[in-house]
Amino acid sequence: MMDTRHRLIKPTIYPWQRWSKRLTMKYRKIDDIPLVLSVSDLADVLGIGLNSAYDLVRSGRIKSLRVGHQIRISKSALLDFLGSN
């Protein structure tokens, strides 16, 4: 018979719990936003999903720069986007 006292029990994670980390505000003020953002950071700042953030960059609504395989967005480009809407 196997001793089950020391087995780790994996908690059940519901779909709404997966997003709980993304819903916490990483940046509380404009001054907290770094000078250069990744697309993931952009999604966090705007409170949108990652696919929507990529769509904004791909469509050219937010100016971006590709560095190798990475996409970077300047803080000024983000502020320009927010000011234009």
List keywords for this structure.
85 residues; alpha+beta; Arc Repressor Mutant, subunit A; 3 strands
Q: What this model shows, in words?
A:
Helix content is 42%, strand content 13%. It has a domain of 54 residues: Orthogonal Bundle (Arc Repressor Mutant, subunit A). Strand 2 and strand 3 form a beta hairpin. It starts with 14 loop residues before the first helix and ends with a helix. The chain is α+β, with helices and mostly antiparallel strands and 85 residues long.
Concise summary:
The protein has 5 helices and 3 strands, in the order ααβααββα.
Termini Cα gap: 66 Å
Tell me which CATH architecture of the domain at 31-84 applies here. Answer: Orthogonal Bundle
- The CATH topology assignment of the domain at 31-84 is Arc Repressor Mutant, subunit A
Task: Please state the average pLDDT score.
Answer: 82
Helix content: 40-55%
The total of helices stands at 5
